[in-house]
Specification:
Layout lengths: L11 E3 L8 H9 L5 E7 H5 L3 H6 L9 E6 L3 H15 L3 E6 L4 H4 L11 H14 L4 E8 L7 H11 L3 E8 L10 H10 L4 E4 L5 H11 L3 E4 L19 H6 L12 H35 L6 H10 L3 H34 L3
Parallel strand pairs: 1-8, 2-3, 3-4, 4-5, 5-6, 6-7, 7-8
The structure holds flavin mononucleotide.
Length: about 350
């Protein structure tokens, strides 16, 4: 087992999210304080076929380090072969193995969370990969296939004995998909029984949640997924969570990270868009960004209308125009509401 220092620059980590966590978004999250990032899940078989698009998905910049490349597959030989190709060609800091993906397309191939039903095969995959590469290997699991078979403590004990350097646990079963709440008590139990670092994951949407997860579970780091979409600011508080003593002194009144205002959100969305276009060209850059734009504008006033226009945008110019018109509209409506407020105050003063 190759140990890894998870306390490099914080304890909040960006989760792999297929279709979202490309190099551009990972870099933005790093700049906001993410301590580590991961690629989307990558098919081990496609790697062994040396598929060009698959190789492009694994490219990253030095700024993104430490980075894990996440592999998905169910054949131990293919997984080991893919891991060797990845290690030699990309030199990531970690190779992560996906044992959590609940998607039908993946599970039907006996990959991702399906392996939680076949622990002997999972153990074979892990041992083969650990022995094949000279890099830390980690695993990301759900708490189980379903409620009846849920037993993450013994799965993590097995992973540890096969030589993984750390483990991430998302305590929902495959049957739950994304429904209900993640059961953080499994994270606590896994942490109490493990001798390797444990990363907790699930339902952390702000600093308050992060503090609660650290306090309730004792996990070594927290992986944040949906909470980072349109909201890389979530990593800004990373420094606060660097030391146990600080976490333990945090009260329940800990405020969630200060929410950025509309101007800040739109400005970061525009930067993200520009970087996406630089990397993929205007046509693909815009299309890849649409779902991110939906998240950046989530909860803004009149966000539904705004999103409709953004989704129809075909160029950076279109998006700039939509944002400019939106800001002007907001300024006008603010001025109108200030005017009516001051009129009603004046009315009050002259005795109406
Ligand atoms: C759109 C989307 C794509 C995801 N893709 C992956 C993936 O490629 N690999 C993986 O291990 N988990 C993937 N996940 C799961 C997340 O990494 C994370 O475990 C899950 O969202 C729970 O964390 P959260 O509550 O912080 O979002 C994905 C989740 C979402 C919402």
């Amino acid at each position: 087992m190759i140990p890894i220092n998870l306390n490099l620059s914080g304890r909040l980590i960006l989760a792999p999210m297929a279709g979202f966590t490309d190099s551009v978004f990972r870099m933005i999250c790093k700049r906001f304080g993410a301590a580590m990032v991961f690629t989307d899940l990558i098919s081990a078989r496609a790697i062994t076929y040396k598929n060009k698009k698959t190789f492009e998905m694994m490219e990253f910049t030095e700024e993104e380090r430490p980075i894990g490349i996440q592999l998905c597959g169910s054949d131990p030989d293919v997984m080991a072969e893919a891991a060797v190709i990845v290690a030699e060609r990309f030199h990531p800091d970690v190779i992560d193995l996906n044992f959590g993906c609940p998607v039908k397309k993946v599970v039907n191939k006996n990959e991702g969370s399906a392996l939680l039903r076949d622990i002997p095969l999972m153990s074979k995959i892990v041992s083969r990969v650990v022995n094949a590469v000279n890099l830390p290997v980690s695993a990301k699991i759900r708490s189980g296939w379903d409620k009846e078979s849920e037993n993450p403590v013994s799965v993590v004990n097995m992973l540890e004995s096969c030589g993984v350097s750390f483990v991430t646990i998302h305590p929902r079963t495959r049957a739950q998909m994304y429904k209900g709440m993640a059961n953080w008590d499994w994270i606590r139990q896994v942490k109490e029984n493990a001798h390797i670092p444990v990363i907790g994951n699930g339902d952390v949407l702000g600093s308050q949640d992060a503090a609660r997860m650290f306090q309730q579970t004792g996990c070594d780091a927290i992986m944040i997924g949906r909470g980072a979409l349109g909201n890389p600011w979530i990593f800004q508080d990373a420094a606060m969570f660097q030391h146990d003593a600080v976490i333990n002194s945090l009260t329940h009144q800990l405020p969630n990270s200060q929410q950025p205002d509309a101007a800040e959100r739109l400005s970061l969305a525009m930067t993200h868009l520009k970087q996406s276009i630089e990397k993929y060209g205007e046509y693909s850059g815009i299309r890849r960004m649409r779902k991110h734009l939906v998240f950046y504008t989530h909860n803004l006033p009149r966000s539904r209308e705004l999103r409709k226009h953004l989704i129809a945008s075909k160029s950076m110019r279109d998006v700039e125009d939509v944002f400019r018109e939106y800001v002007e509209l907001m300024k006008k409506s603010e001025a109108r509401s200030q005017n009516s407020e001051s009129r009603s105050q004046n009315c009050g003063r002259i005795g109406f």
